[in-house]
Amino acid sequence: MLLKINESQENYLERILLIQREKGVVRSVDIAEALGVTKPSVSHAMKLLRENGYILMDDENLITLTPAGEEIARRMAERHHGLARILMRMGVPEETAYEDACKIEHDISQESFEALRRFACQHLDVECQT
User: Fold this and answer.
1) 11, 35 in Cβ contact below 8 A?
2) How far apart are CA 74 and CA 18, in angstroms?
3) Which domains does the chain show, CATH number per domain?
4) pLDDT confidence of 1, banded at 50, 70, 90?
5) 47/54 Cα distance (integer angstroms)
6) pLDDT tens digit string along 33-61?
7) How many other C-beta atoms lie within 10 A of the C-beta of residue 18?
């Protein structure tokens, strides 16, 4: 049973996806290092994500996303990167743009995100995929 997911869980799922793309496998220690959190924090988060059907852990404690977890992770990564590109095109320094995009990505509706992306594609010369 999939439950409502909170911002912290979205961040964990997004980070799992990014680590998986970079390294091919995901371990709790990689997540802790990437997010700057403790291993016990990661363990607790992984327990919740596993119980809620967003990740699987094998016998070697390697973490993989379920289809539901991957869908959320991809959506968060797309929003994060897309919002950061828009902010940078508007003159915001890259580091600030990515930090702010991380905050915005969790609260903005899909409808508003799509509208911002369309606007940026048409008026800010942001590269857009169709």
Assistant:
1) yes
2) 9
3) 7-71 (1.10.10.10), 75-123 (1.10.60.10)
4) very low
5) 10
6) 999 999 999 999 999 999 999 999 999 98
7) 18
